[in-house]
Amino acid sequence: MPTAEREIETLANQEYKWGFETLIESESAPPGLSEETVRFISAKKGEPEWMLQWRLKAFRHWLTMEEPHEWPHLK
Fold first, then answer.
1. How far apart are CA 38 and CA 26, in angstroms?
2. Tens of pLDDT, residues 9-62
3. Residue 1's pLDDT band (boundaries 50, 70, 90)?
4. Angle at 43 between CA 39 and CA 45, to 5 degrees
5. Cβ within 8 Å of residue 30, ≥6 positions away
6. pTM for this model (two decimals)
């Protein structure tokens, strides 16, 4: 391995020594939408119980809906 490549490898693999770091708290939900995801988001936002129930009712209604297939009339 040439000297320049060795130096780059050494620099890339060493511990960061300048003391700057950004700690970012994050949470994530699994892909897709589910009742658990709705509950998670509502809890994260600190919503009241009535709002959670309203969202769950809307989510359950959404589950019963059919996806439109002919509305754009693309042919």
1. 17
2. 998 888 877 777 788 888 888 899 999 999 999 999 999 999 999 999 999 999
3. low
4. 120
5. 37
6. 0.59
Angle at 33 between CA 28 and CA 34, to 5 degrees: 100
Buried b (16+ CB within 10 A) or exposed e, 2-20: eeeeeeeeeeeeeeeeeee
Structure tokens that stand for 24 in this block = 């970012």
Are 46 and 72 a contacting pair, CB within 8 Å? no
Rounded Cα gap, residues 64 and 2, in angstroms: 64
| Pick from 27, 31, 58: nearest CA to 43 | 27
